[in-house]
Amino acid sequence: MLLVAMTEEEFRTKAAELLQLQGIHLSGPVGKVSKDGVTAGYTHANDTLTVHIIDKPIFVSRAYCERRIHDWLTG
User: Fold this and answer.
1) 49: closest CA among 4, 17, 18?
2) Residue spans per domain, the chain
3) Judging by beta carbons within 10 Å of its beta carbon (0-12, 13-18, 19+), is residue 44 exposed, middle or buried?
4) β-pairing, 2-5 with 38-45?
5) What are the distances in angstroms from CA 1 to CA 8, 16, 29?
6) Would you give per-residue pLDDT tens digits along the chain (75 residues)?
7) CA 40/CA 73 separation, integer angstroms
8) I need a surface site. Which of 31, 38, 65, 66 has the fewest CB within 10 A?
């Protein structure tokens, strides 16, 4: 599980950025996204974005997926 401190305004800004740069659509404060064979669920509440990996290719580690997502969210 990945936790990222993020205000509501930061969440909206990051959602727009992820859609434009990565093709990832965060449809609201709770949802599920997929990219490159990785599926993750997310919840934004109380100024924290929580992301958990639901499915991934067998040859890719969960830690690698979480690092990539963290980089997209904080970069």
Assistant:
1) 4
2) 2-74
3) buried
4) unpaired
5) 20, 23, 17
6) 999 999 999 999 999 999 999 999 999 999 999 999 999 999 999 999 999 999 999 999 999 999 999 999 988
7) 13
8) 31
The CB density around residue 49, as the number of other CB atoms within 10 Å, is 21
- The residue count for the chain: 75
CATH number, domain 2-74, options 3.30.310, 3.30.70, 3.30.1360, 2.40.360? 3.30.310
Cα(61)–Cα(22) distance, integer angstroms: 20
**Cα–Cα dist 70/67, whole Å:** 5
Question: What's the confidence (pLDDT) of residue 75?
Answer: 81
